[in-house]
Amino acid sequence: MPSAEVKGNILVVDDESQIARVLKTTLSAQGYGVRTAGDGEEALLEMKNWPPDLIITDLRMPRMDGIELSRKVRSQSRIPIIVLSVKGEETIKVAALDAGADDYITKPFSTNELLARVRAALRRAVPEEPQEGHIKIGDFQIDLSGHNVTVRGQEVRLTPKEFDLLAYLARHPGKVITHRVLLAAIWGANSVEQPEYLRVVVGHLRKKLEPDETFPHYIITEPWIGYRFEPGD
User: What is the pTM (predicted TM-score) of this model?
Assistant: First the structure.
């Protein structure tokens, strides 16, 4: 009898063995190949012989924590990284996202939330067909060279900064992007301590893009952290 197809390989990195076992059992039951590591150094060694499709890592670990692991992995790979944090760890969570992590889950979390985040991360990791000068995703068509944007078939006029911010978000759909990263990408490194720039432009974008700006579903606020772009179906 042929073995079931593995949906993807996931490396779970956590120094608490009980949590690592629970995650391995949960993910394995859903058809994923799973291995575990006790800290960042062990994870990097494991990856040399068993390249994963996704990493789930705790933040606070001995020897090498989740922030340093995210930084080292991102320096050589685009493997999606989900970090696990506890409530109230916004500072360390932001540091991990700035270091290259893609998403986070706050403990305690439900199995359904974990699996949904895993599916989304793996889905985003599948490269789309390249289309020179264009981004076509969900409800959006963005002409990068012509600075034209169409949303649900309707052209939307944007200022240069609004366009730059939308294009950057559209290149990273579903990923949590911190205020600092967005400010540096759109306004330059000297603007990372000027969050009001970002708030103003996001507000303008929502007025132009969202069917109801009071309940945005394209540009989602991650409180105290940054924003996540959800392009629609």
Answer: 0.80
